[in-house]
Amino acid sequence: MLTPHKISLLILIEAYWEIIETDSTTPEKLEPLLFFLIEKISDEKRFPEPTLTELCKELSKISDNTDNITNNFNEILLAKLVVIVTPHELTLSIKEMKRFFTRDAELYLRKYSLLGIFVRRCILEMNKLMFDDISRLYNAFIEYRETLVKRTAKPSNLYTKDTYVPLEISEMTELAQRFHMHKQELIPKNDAESFSHYVITQLRKYGGILPLEIEEKLRKIHDRIPEISSIYYIEFVKYMQTGEYEGALTNFYKYSNFCPDDPENRSWYQYVLLNLVVLHAKFGHKEQAILAIREAIEMARENNDQECLRFALSWLYRLKSSDQTTGTRVSASEQQMLESLISKAKQANFMYLQALGELGKSQRQIQQGSSPTEVFESLLRSSVLNMNCPFKTMRFQGHLLNASVWQTYGSDTLANLFTHEVINNPDPSPEDRVTAICQLADNHISHGNYMNAFEVLAKSKVHFNGIRRAVSQWVFCFEKLMYQKSFNRDEIFNIGAIEHQIRACCQDDDLFRADFEFNRALYLAKTDQPDEGVDVLHKLINQSCRIGNQNQMLVANYLLKIAEIRIETEDLTSALPYVLSSLCLTGRAKSMIEKIMPVILAEHSLHLQSVAQYIYAQCLIACIDQDLQANRKQSINWQDVLYALDASRIGFKHLESISELLNVFQLMSYIYNIKGDINMRNRCAKEFRILMMLQEKNRRKQPDWNMTYYSRCIKLNQQEQENEAKQSIMSMEIENNYMEESSTFKINI
């Protein structure tokens, strides 16, 4: 595309040939100028192009072998620029360059020489320009020229044409400015394409959000040259990051329409379908993604494109294995498909697909309850592949999966190690980083370390500005923390304020959805809605029974909770079947829980460990009651029950779970009364009264409306985040007086 800088080069080429015509002894002396022109023409994709001042400075540095002609070239260039005073003269001066192709054989400009190709391209570009394009070129030329050539500039003696001073922009009317297009910038197409490809390269390398200045420049390029497809790709990436589905889909279709060089070549569209699969998967549209990937597989098979087929099979397995509607089990055919994918990727030396297949295999083994040895073998193979040929995305996803596996198997130290490896590295994507941060915060929450969880979330808030999916995941994690803390402290109004926000966010998290539904059942019972709470518990019982025998302890807990709800509502007749069902489980509960307890204490959260200890104590009490009723020797000592209750008390105290602490202290008072230990019974009763008063105070407490603001306002600076986190923590500590009083509480053994 023609620019003022290229017009200056044309003027220098014209002056070069005119001097050679007048003096045949000068070609050797003009070699520095010739090399200068060749260098500038070869560097035509430079962005931005040099200004007239920069060009003249470079001209002045040409070697003195030209016998002081260099200075004349500066004068000739400036003089020729001054005499071009109308768009017609500009057009005519370029078209007249045709004469250099009709000279004699010694002097004419050859068509296929570097200078000849440059001149012919400029002439062709000028012939293709429409009226408004010529107007834009002329006004850009005037602005380019007047940076150095003022109205007082004197033309050289070689050119004696009268000068014409154009009107200043400020002297024109608004209509004239629009007509002459003074306010529009000239953008070469090659420069625009180079700039857009550079932006894409930086986006792929670093990610993040584009600065406003670059977005404005891209918008100008898009308005002037809408056929550049890479602009649509940049918009597509931007909307993908911000989570705007319609904008991403629209720009993806535009990019697909402009991109193919050969529309007749249908094989190109299978890669379009692969990108469409990524788009649908990004926004959770599993059905559309599976339809697109199956079509891509068919086209890849028709065109015998093995590379595309392997990527398509990899994405198909990934979508099927993460499909919540079909359960966590993967069919035998899909398992065989995964094994085939890994073997073919290994044969073709596609290490990326091989590593991806091993990660998918590990995830499938975890979902299906395979042995830890098989899981870690797949993870180790994927890690070795990434070490030999490192893929940053795969490496960080492997670290996250390792963290999840170690947290599942109860090693919090190793889980935190892999999580920090992702957080402290500058290379992971925002999605991987926020996943690691949320995993670390969840680990703190599961052990009652609310302060550490607040600090982790507060410090990480500024890393996800403008990235909707990352922000949504961060907000969901923060709301889980606030919900769990409010529920444990019986802050009824806070629970109601958070519940409607968090309900829609936990649909993809099976474990948290079960915990949320259980807490919701207890919340409904606390708010005088016992029937609704019982219905929720029935659904949880049905789900646990379908999963298998590993959740019998949870089923017993659900049955006991239903019985407790019925007893509290004075519906003793309805409570009796659930108590009997729980007692049937309790008859073999001691042996069952003793088998399960090591796994719970090693692998599960602090809350579940405390619940297990409490249920274990209840089962021991039931066994003692059976011995007493049968007039048998007591097979279990009351001290064993107190050991389990004390372990449960410590866990619930750390979690600040007031309702569970009330149940524990009530049961401990009952046992101490049976044993005749009046002092310990009174101490437990005193703790019970303190907790009852705190519970009533929390139930009357109004919701903390700053909590919603804290979770939504992501653009606060770091100091403000830390202050808000400290305020939230202080509000949690103000009402912890009962903790100080009970911190010295120990069972008198």
Descriptive account of the structure:
With 749 residues, this protein is mostly helical. Among the domains are: 4-180, no CATH class; 189-388, Serine Threonine Protein Phosphatase 5, Tetratricopeptide repeat (Alpha Horseshoe), CATH 1.25.40.10. 72% of the residues lie in helices and 0% in strands. The protein contains 36 helices and no strands. The chain has helices spanning 4-22, 31-42, 52-59, 69-83, 87-95, 114-128, 131-145, 174-180, 189-206, 212-224, 229-242, 245-258, 269-282, 286-303, 306-321, 332-347, 351-367, 372-388, 392-408, 412-423, 430-446, 450-460, 468-488, 492-503, 510-526, 530-547, 552-568, 572-587, 589-603, 606-629, 638-655, 658-675, 678-700, 706-712, 718-734, 737-742. The longest helix has 24 residues, at 606-629. The protein is elongated.
Quick summary:
This is Anaphase-promoting complex subunit 5. With 749 residues, the chain is mainly α.
Determine Rg (CA atoms, Å). Answer: 38 Å
Looking at the structure, the CATH topology of the domain at 189-388 is: Serine Threonine Protein Phosphatase 5, Tetratricopeptide repeat
DSSP, total strands: 0
What is the name of the CATH class of the domain at 189-388?
Mainly Alpha
Please count the helical segments.
Answer: 36
Category by helix and strand content: mainly alpha
Could you give the distance between the termini?
A: 92 Å
Average pLDDT figure:
69
Backbone shape: elongated
Q: What composes the largest sheet? A: none
Helix fraction bin: over 70%
Q: Low-confidence runs (pLDDT<50, min 5 residues)? A: 151-183, 324-330, 546-550, 707-722, 728-749
Q: CATH superfamily assignment of the domain at 189-388? A: Tetratricopeptide repeat domain
Beta-strand fraction estimate: under 5%
Q: Tell me what the CATH architecture of the domain at 189-388 is.
A: Alpha Horseshoe
Q: What is the assembly state of the chains in this entry?
A: single chain
Pfam family, one: ANAPC5
Keywords: Cell cycle, Cell division, Mitosis, Ubl conjugation pathway
Organism: Rhizophagus clarus
Family: Belongs to the APC5 family.
